[in-house]
Specification:
- The protein is built from 19 helices and 23 strands.
- The chain has 698 residues and is of the alpha+beta class.
- The longest helix has 43 residues.
- The two termini are 47 Å apart.
Amino acid sequence: MADPSSYRPKPGQIPDSPGVYKFRDEHRRVIYVGKAKSLRQRLANYFQDLSGLHPRTRTMVTTAASVEWTVVATEVEALQLEYSWIKEYDPRFNVKYRDDKSYPYLAVTLNEEFPRVQVMRGAKKKGVRYFGPYGHAWAIRETVDLMLRVFPVRTCSAGVFKNAARTGRPCLLGYIGKCSAPCVGRVTPEEHRELADDFCDFMAGRTGTYIRRLEKDMMAAAEEMEYERAARLRDDVEALKRAMEKSAVVLADATDADLIAVAEDELEAAVQIFHVRGGRVRGQRGWVTDKVENVDTSGLVEHALQQLYGEESGDAVPKEVLVPALPEDPEAVSQWLADRRGSQVSLRIPQRGDKKDLMVTVQRNAQQALGLHKTKRASDLTTRSRALEEIAEALGLDTAPLRIECFDISHLQGEDVVASMVVFEDGLARKGEYRRFQIKGFEGQDDVRSMHEVISRRFRRYLHEKERTGEWEETGAPTGPAPTGPVPASTGPVPAPTGPVPASTGPVPASAEPAADGSREDDGRPKRFAYPPQLLVVDGGQPQVAAAKRALDELGIDDIAVCGLAKRLEEVWLPDDDDPVVLPRSSEGLYLLQRIRDEAHRFAITYQRAKRAKRIRSSPLDAVAGLGDTRKQALIKHFGSVKKLRQATIEEICEVPGIGRRTAESVAVALAATAPAAPAVNTATGEIMEEDDGGSTT
């Protein structure tokens, strides 16, 4: 726990102007972002007596190790920069709203030559007109089905559209009149776009004018005795009215507003938003968040506005935003919203009338959402907290291990040896930080040696990234090539080796592969290993734990707890202890360790199977006629590798069950035909470079 006075800026260093500030922990990770009209006054509040701070604020300032700030010209710029930094750094002590589900939108792809109406989820795309969000996708499809009678816009996928254009035959909707069939040229691109624009106008709330026009056309057709056309127009009007009935009228026509309500308690807050367009409720969404910072209703409203409109512009920002409490600086927030919309936006609290009544309804929805969320999550949240406390107590840790990393080794008879690293934070998996390793340089079923190598590589990378992060903070750019060899804790980065590795050091281990999601830094390297865990778990017993502890000791790391979980009796092993720690079978802490261990095993074996399948598919044995996968695997399992199989005699190959002499001769011929070329010689040292099937070694 850090003392805030150790990093408190000196008097006079902090400017008395608007700006945004960042608190960083000892690993240079941003843990909190805030803004202020006066940086000097705001930051002074954090460096008072700890007993006078809110418990959450006290936790934040004692976790932090430094504070930085950026001065801006106006409070609107501060609001925008704060939002950008929160999105970029994802600080753990900031309130972060997350949707309680993925909401579907009705989307019209106006960026295509022939716009398409469809249901869309996820991030919004440029050039697409969105309506919603809706509570259910089926509600969108019902509405679209009713409106296609009047606005026969294309709804088919690109593949169906191209196929219809190629064959000259429209799909079923084209035959029944629910598509204008632009794929076969029944309408021109201009006529189809006009239909799409009318569809968007109707969905945007301009309904009365269009319905009155259809009714006028219907009466005119009846007077001219065009009864079939009049009947069709009558049915069109009824279809549009049924579509409108699906959205309740809550406010006067032409009212565009978003109503935001907040329900909160000491620990959590729920936000509900009603989107009203053209006087009708066109969408609804909700968020729930933990109150990880000391924030009141005004602060929650401001965060909700940032989340809701941070990436929106134009008509997505309504003319009016109704809230239960105004932000701390309503003028700056109103100006920020106006800049995003391109015109004036009214930000206010409804006082009377229909808008006040509707706000009560939104507030009731927020309270129900919070109650439902607490009912669902109470046991899970309590269980995770209790599990971490039980682990800390059983292992003798000072605090609960908020970040846990688990390692597992996987191989098949010593072949395709791989390892996995999974990360759990606050008892939940962080799959974006998973890593997997290839282990080369030795063969055989030596899990202890493999574990030592993997732990060494992971924390050697951590030490290097820690050093490199320091360089970037000082210079803004790396000062040399990224090292691939070990970096002692007491030294800085070393350049990548260019010559052969001396025999005494063994082969250079392959660096850790990127996470399964392929996430990388901006320069293409895998994400940094700069954040150490509080607890390191290995899949295994006392030998694996001792190997992991020895690897940390060799790197000079002594502030990370190590334990192992043995599968046979589910015993927890600690370094240098002859007897395991036995947790009760009903222990939530044991259950969490089992989940982490099983996830590491799943991740490792999935990678190992993928590598094995790739190796078998590209095996030289594929050239042997009549040799199926079963006998291929039997040969590899018996000899251990293709290299050893290539060195075997025909008599030795015949010893494998199911392999006769004729098959053995075919195998020997196929392997001889695919034998590697003569070994290359290093001209600088005269050493022979021998190439194996699994990779190159010196």
